[in-house]
Amino acid sequence: MGQITLPGNPPIAVTLRRSAQARRLSLRLSQIDGRVTLTLPRRVPEREAVGFLREKEAWLRGHLAARGDDARIELGAVLPIEGVMREIRPGGGRSVILGETCVEVPGPEERVAARLQGWLRTLARERLAEASDRYAARLGRPYTRLTLRDTRSRWGSCTSQGALMYSWRLILAPRDVLDYVAAHEVSHLAEMNHSKAFWNTVEALYGDWRPQRRWLHDEGGSLHRYRFGD
């Protein structure tokens, strides 16, 4: 593992990773955190990797520009809550207040990000528990527990013991997308696979799931752009 910098405006840091299994050079841009990784077969020299990067520079810069910069959570910033963009404003009293176009966060400015993140996680748990309860009752199969994490590789999971796990960032997505993920994971209580029977179960519980799955594929990575100081 090493790192090189592709010069330009701005310069791009690229992590080099050698792999015994790799048969060719491959370039990957993470839509989650914007990291660029170049994988090299074991015997390919670094100068060849640099040449490959220069060939792909226009493609790489175009995709980095399309991804956009990370968004720091602070007063005056905007972020989606249940799919609606809202401005973060100072609030009075003791509770976070959700409005149509804003979210008001009380307390000192340096605690805004942490306070808002905690509130979002609580709201995510409420929404996901309600959806999971509803779909599990419809399916006739209870789950054993529900946990939230800040996962980067998946939006949810279901174990063979019936434990559900979700990314709390689903609260940033449109409500129908969160509902689809809940239906998807609850369906695994009946089908621990992605067979035709599984997708038939998802459709029976939720309806046409394809637009929501497509939204996650196309837009889901952007939910990880919002940085709460973690």
UniProtKB/TrEMBL annotation:
Occurrences of domain YgjP-like metallopeptidase (ranges): 26-218
CDD domains on file: M48_yhfN_like
InterPro entries registered for this protein in UniProt: UTP_pyrophosphatase-like (IPR053136), YgjP-like_metallopeptidase (IPR002725)
PANTHER family: UNCHARACTERIZED PROTEIN YGJP (PTHR30399), UTP PYROPHOSPHATASE (PTHR30399:SF1)
Name of protein: Zinc metallopeptidase-like protein
Organism: Salipiger bermudensis (strain DSM 26914 / JCM 13377 / KCTC 12554 / HTCC2601) (Pelagibaca bermudensis)
